[in-house]
Write a structure and sequence with these properties.
Helix 6 packs antiparallel against helix 10. The protein folds into two domains: 66 residues, Orthogonal Bundle (Arc Repressor Mutant, subunit A), CATH 1.10.10; 118 residues. The termini are far apart. The chain is an all-alpha fold. The radius of gyration is 20 Å and the shape is globular.
C-alpha cells in the first residue's frame, strides 16, 4: 500500500503555491510562523510545516530569515510591535480604552489572544526567553518609556507592562466578558491604575 502523503494528514488546510512575490511570500511565512510558534512553541515547531501553511518552499525561510531562530525573532518583533501603534495612542483616553478592552471577551479578538499566547510560550521556554527579552526591550519597553516621558519613565514603563500582562492573563483565564456593576467597577479601577502610571510623578520639593 502506498504511504499517505504528509500533506494529506495535516489537520489544517494548506495554502496554494504562491506566485513569485517576495514581499507577499515573506509576509505569509511570517504570519504562518507566528501561528505555529503560538500553537507548538519554538522547539516543537517544524519549518516545513510553516512553509506548507504559507504555500512556500522551505528553503525560502532561510533566504528571508536566516533560519528558524531568525524567523522566531522577526515573529516576536512583529507580535509586539508597540512602536508601530504609538501614533494612535491618546494619553487622555488610553487608560479607559485599555480597561474597557480588558473587561471584554478575550475571544472577540482571536488574533490578539493568539499573539499573547505566542509571547507566553516564548517567556516560559529557556531557549526563547532571552530572545523575547531583547525583543521586548526594543519593541515595547523602549517605545513605551519614550511615549510616557517625564520622571521615572523607565520604571513606569516596566510596571505598566507588568500590569497590562496581568490584565491579559486574568481575561484569558476568565474567558468571558464582565457584565453589570462588576464590569463598571472593574473599568473604573483598572483605568485609574493605568492612568496613575501614565501620569508622571510631580517633582518633589
Amino acid at each position: 500500500m502506498r504511504p499517505v502523503p504528509r500533506t494529506a494528514i495535516l489537520d489544517r488546510p494548506l495554502a496554494p503555491p504562491r506566485r513569485r512575490d517576495s514581499a507577499a511570500t515573506r509576509g505569509a511565512i511570517l504570519e504562518a510562523g507566528k501561528r505555529q510558534f503560538a500553537q507548538f512553541g519554538y522547539d516543537r515547531t517544524v519549518l516545513r510545516e510553516i512553509a506548507a501553511e504559507a504555500g512556500a518552499d522551505v528553503a525560502l525561510i532561510k533566504r528571508y530569515f536566516g533560519g528558524k531562530e531568525g524567523l522566531f525573532v522577526e515573529a516576536l518583533k512583529s507580535a509586539i510591535g508597540a512602536q508601530d501603534r504609538l501614533r494612535g495612542w491618546d494619553r487622555a483616553a488610553f487608560a479607559r480604552e485599555i480597561a474597557t478592552l480588558m473587561a471584554g471577551n478575550p475571544h472577540a479578538q482571536e488574533d490578539r489572544t493568539q499573539t499573547f499566547q505566542f509571547l507566553l510560550r516564548a517567556a516560559t521556554s529557556p531557549s526563547t526567553a532571552p530572545l523575547l527579552n531583547l525583543a521586548v526591550q526594543e519593541r515595547f519597553l523602549g517605545p513605551i518609556r519614550d511615549w510616557l516621558g517625564g520622571k521615572e519613565s523607565a520604571a513606569r514603563a516596566r510596571v505598566l507592562a507588568a500590569v497590562h500582562i496581568g490584565f491579559l492573563v486574568e481575561r484569558l483565564i476568565r474567558g468571558k466578558a464582565l457584565t453589570g456593576p462588576e464590569r463598571e467597577a472593574f473599568i473604573d479601577r483598572a483605568a485609574a491604575t493605568i492612568q496613575g502610571l501614565i501620569d508622571a510623578p510631580t517633582p518633589g520639593p
